[in-house]
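User: structure tokens for this one?
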Amino acid sequence: MTGSKKTIIIPCDFTEVSQYALDLTIRLSKLLNTDYTLVHIVDEGGMFTSETNRKKAVSDATDQLKVMAEDTLKEYGEKPKIIARVGSLYESINAIAEELEARLVIMGIHEFKGLQKFTGSHALKVMAGSKIPYIMVAGAYTFRENNDIVFPVDHKVENKEKLIWAQYMAKNFNSKIIIFSANHSDELLKKRTNANLGFARKFMSEKGIEYEIHTAAKGKNFTDEILRFSREVNTNLILIMITKEIGITDFLLGAEEQKIIFNDLNINVMCVNPRTDLRKSGGFN
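Assistant:
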């Protein structure tokens, strides 16, 4: 869709969390100079088994989206675009995002507990393989004067891929990047983390990005430390990389990023999938 204004995708299931995502999107769209699109997917593998029922479900969803769009127009003076279609819940959002060349997908998420731990998180499944970052919203919009972004760094090579998105967010939101480093006891992991930290420091300096560096407590779970620190600095956003090729074990036991995404602090989490096309010889194309 060349020549058109970029958009932000908001997956909509007509629950309260969809409204949370819309509220945040309205604010971010002004900073990014984008419009935004409400998207509802009628699950082709769900209860709508007949073509007639699917068409009715799409028609009903379209009517609900139109109401949301009109309400948004009345309250904010802006009217979002709408899309309702039949498809796979885990593939269609990403397909639409790529089709529209979206800047971001902003998705409200439901509390992660009970049987979801055994069936897998819808949020993680939807994000899997996306080339476009997701911002996950768990609660109502909370204004925080502190616009800094927490940027965890550990031993994984994918840390370098996150830097391009840190640059994007810092530029568009006038944010300082707060690098939060793991504190490993293992010498090999420590060496790799320090290498990533040095790379991040060099990248930030060369790009003129304001940043500062903090270190997690030694011997503590890094995920717990990220959340503790994020609460301490009252951040608006945590930027993380999603585990590459999440498997059933991650869904059963809980990948570490699940703890961050489903935090009870109402901190938004920007999730980026590993992309080897953003890396070349340890850097970026």
